[in-house]
Amino acid sequence: MHRALISGIAIAILCSVIGLFLVLRRYSLFGDAIAHSSFGGIALGLLAGIYPLWTAYGVSIASALIITKIKDRYNISGDASIAVLLSSGIAVGLVIIGLSGGFTIDIFSFLFGSILLVSVNDTILILSLTGGILVVILLLYRQILYSTFNEEQAKVSGIPVEKINYLIVFMAGLTVVTSIQLVGVLLISALFVIPNVTAIMYGKGFKQTAIISMSFSIFSVVIGILISYIFDITPAGTIVLLSIGLFAGTIGIKSAGLLSKH
Amino acid sequence: MLIVEIENLTVQYPDVKALDDVSFRVDQGDFLGIIGPNGAGKSTLFDSMLGLNTKYTGTIKFFGEDIRKSKNYLKEIGYVPQKPIFEKNFPATVSDVVRMGLKNESDESKINEILQQLWIHELRNRRIGELSGGQLQRVFIAKALVNNPKILILDEPVTGIDQQSIELFYSILRELNSKQKITIIWSSHDLDAVNQLANHVACLNRTLFFHGESAKFFSNDELIKQYSEASMQEHMHHH
Q1: What's chain B's Rg over C-alpha atoms?
Q2: Strands B151-155, B183-187: parallel, antiparallel or unpaired by DSSP?
Q3: Long-range contacts made by residues B199-203, C-beta under 8 angstroms, separation at least 24?
Q4: What's the distance, CA B153 to chain centroid?
Q5: Mean per-residue pLDDT for A44-58?
Q6: pLDDT at B16
Q7: Rg of chain A taking only CA atoms, in angstroms
């Protein structure tokens, strides 16, 4: 249980930080697309008898980087490239599952998450990846923020915008696959998007918005895990419903005129 | 000291020649006003100078060095775009945006200093999506200046700025050039303002048909007439 909570908090922080940059780049569904492509990677791992998360890391990061390259070179719009990535991952997964002789119970734990079953090794992996990614973001904070704000001006300031874009895609790939254990493939983008769109409505500066988003995310994950443990229901659904509750509450406060409008 | 040297700059787009054999120089401390009708190639010129457009022939040198060889010159440039495009809901305050321009992030005092100089200190905690056109323009000038650039390149916004903000903007430019000795390259549609502020004028209409001291341009009725006719034709063409 405490392993689930510790891993859950780390994932909550990681998803809300990476998610904030994705949301502001109008890349909200990118997390979803990477998660779906990781489904192909998981199926591949199960078929080959390799620990499925490792193949998921490989497949989803590689496909995310490739699709970003194709998008830049052939000028395909962001939403269309996300659709390509999303469907190709699922398609590969389905074909592989077909080849291996049908669905197994393992696939379901990846589709819907299984944070209550997280192992010591998984917890260590989650904590070290969270630490590593947060350090990279802190070190390159200005460059990442500036190129998210306006790519052209960031370029004129001498920031290597293309490299930063690939770095974000790479970190998003790592984050998504790491977070699959918490909410599964199907609900991953909720963790990326909902706490951030909620936090943005509070009208604060960048750092405060990031802190509000992390707090909402941690709240949903911790309370969600506890509720699901007590009532024996799926943590993924509970966590996402709680963050939707915070989103709805914020809309309520805002429409009552208690928050400044933008 | 020579700061910018542009020689035989030509930019050929598939359907049109955006710039045709443009050559001029900018010395340290110059205040160059670039005028020309819409579609005259001003933005293409700026994009090429800033490294955003690399498909050109000819050479562009900053501080004696070809910009194709090194991007170091960008450190010395503050750039204010014509239209600062950003997500309306972007969670950044005025201070956040100015801080993006700051290379050494520990230098917080510099941010306050520049905000005060541009009369936007009281807006520092406001979200940028809430500001008026004139206020935004000053925020982007602050971002361009916070790193102590030697050159300021400004693409003047055409619409959305009130008269009072325009006056303030002009007095800020004058002070930056005369007191802080910043070299300014400024594209504008306002001939009177260029006459009052700039000491050099480049008149562009795909080719450069005048470059020199602004006094020479503005005392030559024939040149002004040519410019007005070109602008008028472009204006009629657009309507």
Answers
A1: 18
A2: parallel
A3: B199/B30, B199/B31, B199/B32, B200/B26, B200/B30, B200/B31, B200/B32, B200/B33, B201/B32, B201/B33, B201/B34, B201/B35, B202/B24, B202/B32, B202/B33, B202/B34, B202/B35, B203/B34, B203/B35, B203/B36, B203/B227
A4: 3
A5: 87
A6: 86
A7: 18
What are the tens digits of pLDDT across the range B7-56?
Answer: 999 999 888 889 999 999 999 999 999 998 888 888 899 999 999 999 99
Residue A228: inside a domain, yes or no? no
What phi, psi does B148 have (nearest 5°)?
A: 50, 60
Place of tokens 């472009």: B234
**Domain contains A56:** yes
Whether residue A251 is predicted with pLDDT greater than 80 in this model: the reply is yes
CA dist A181 and A115 (Å) reads: 5
Nearest CB to B101: which of A157, A207, A209? A157
Q: Rounded mean pLDDT of A109-133?
A: 87
Question: Is the per-residue pLDDT at B231 higher than 80?
Answer: no
Asked if residue A198 lies in contact with residue A213, where contact means CB atoms within 8 angstroms, the answer is yes
Q: What is the domain range of residue A71?
A: 2-186
Give whole-number Cα distances, A229 to A12, A114, A117, A226, in Å.
Answer: 18, 12, 11, 5
Count of C-beta atoms within a 10 Å radius of residue A74:
8
Does the residue A129 lie in any domain?
yes
> What is each CA distance from A51 to A61, A104, A171, A217, B29, in whole angstroms?
16, 14, 21, 28, 65
Mean pLDDT of chain A, nearest integer = 88
Chain A residues close to B104, C-beta within 8 Å: none
pLDDT at residue A134 in the model: 96
CA distance A14 to chain B (A): 19
Query: What gap in Å lies between CA B73 and CA B144, rounded to an integer?
Result: 14
Is the confidence at residue B239, as pLDDT, over 80?
no
Quote the number of domains for chain A.
Answer: 1
Amino acid at A11: I
Q: Which of the four pLDDT bands, split at 50, 70 and 90, describes residue B158?
A: low
Cβ pair A158:B87 closer than 8 A:
no
Q: Residue B131 phi/psi, 5° resolution?
A: -85, 160
Mutation to test the A interface, candidates B74, B87, B95, B126, most A Cβ within 10 Å:
B87
Q: Is the pLDDT of residue B65 over 60?
A: yes
Domain CATH for A103: 1.10.3470.10
Which percentage of chain A shows pLDDT scores above 90? 47
Contact A158 B75 (CB under 8 A): yes
Domain membership flag for residue A23? yes
User: Complex ipTM, two decimals?
Assistant: 0.84
